[in-house]
Amino acid sequence: MDVPGPVSRRAAAAAATMLLRTARVPRECWFLPTALLCAYGFFASLRPSEPFLTPYLLGPDKNLTERQESRPDRLLVLKVLWNDFLTCYSSRPLLCWSVWWALSTCGYFQVVNYTQGLWEKVMPSRHAAIYNGGVEAVSTLLGAIAVFMVGYIKISWSTWGEMTLSLCSLLIAAAVYIMDTVGNIWVCYASYVVFRIIYMLLITIATFQIAANLSMERYALVFGVNTFIALALQTLLTLTVVDASGLGLEITTQFLIYASYFAFIAVVFLVNGAVSVIKKYRKQEDQESSSPVTTS
Q: Around Cβ 219, how many Cβ atoms within 10 Å?
């Protein structure tokens, strides 16, 4: 057995020093994120006004007893939110635009999330050059240009808004159907661009119409509810159509369902819009017939 000499001792010392230096690197790398997390936890838990809240609520000008103050303030908040919810969605124009907003956003997310799979089936990337990223960029740019043109559209949205939503939803359904059935990648690209332009144009109009029927304090409530409904429907649609625990359909069948989904939206708003227009014109005719005729 060899006894380690001075050279081997120096080599061992150098190796130990190197190990210590390398061991310090992770600690130094983790120090800043750990410090930031600790600081975030500290300030997130810091509630400087909490000790003064109870004395404030129990003050003589608030007319609250200690027993009343100990009940949740959340019940009051929920009651206010529920009343605001009923007030907002009792407006028929806001309800119609919100329903379209939620339904179409659900379908839009599905098409955008799974269109890459459809394109891969139409034109596999391993066999030819693909331009998926360029198409996404072009569709976004053209959609933004279309949004800027919204201000130049002159139409009575209160009268023809639902019919416009029906027509545009039908065009979206046609674009998705063409993407699904035509085996040409360039036609798929063009249909996708049309699909995104129409959606971005309409979602801007819908957002404006919803905001026009709301007070600023209720924006978060209505758009939060609409977004929640859209995501809930998307989750249900994904579990039913895409997920293996559901139907687990092929990508082409999925897009056929998405096209049918937008066609269903178009039919619903067509019927609803037609009824609304007929009622409005009948009301105008009744008002004109009931108004007194002045004679000289």
A: 13
Does the structure show a pLDDT above 60 at 209? Answer: yes
Are 222 and 94 spatial neighbours (Cβ–Cβ below 8 Å)?
yes
Cβ-based neighbour number of residue 192 at 10 Å: 24
HEC per residue, the chain? CCCCCHHHHHHHHHHHHHHHHHHHHHHHHHHHHHHHHHHHHHHHHCCCCHHHHHHHHCCCCCCCCHHHHCCCCHHHHHHHHHHHHHHHHCCHHHHHHHHHHHHHHHHHHHHHHHHHHHHHHHCCCCCCCCCHHHHHHHHHHHHHHHHHCHHHCCCCHHHHHHHHHHHHHHHHHHHHHHHHHCCCHHHHHHHHHHHHHHHHHHHHHHHHHHHHCCCHHHHHHHHHHHHHHHHHHHHHHHHHHHCCCCCCCCHHHHHHHHHHHHHHHHHHHHHHHHHHHHHHHHHHHHHHHHCCCCCC
CA–chain centroid gap for 291, Å, is: 48
List pLDDT tens digits, range 9-38.
555 455 545 544 554 444 456 667 666 666
| Contact yes or no for 203/109 (Cβ under 8 A) | no
pLDDT tens for 101-132 read 999 999 999 999 999 889 888 888 787 778 88
Query: Which residue reads 């159907």 in tokens?
Result: 177
pLDDT at 77 over 90: no
**Nearest to 233, CA basis, from 100, 83, 64, 106:** 106
Q: How far is the CA of 274 from the CAs of 86, 162, 189, in angstroms?
A: 26, 8, 33
> Residues 219-262: pLDDT tens digits?
889 999 999 999 999 999 999 998 888 888 999 999 999 999 99
The amino acid that residue 30 corresponds to is W
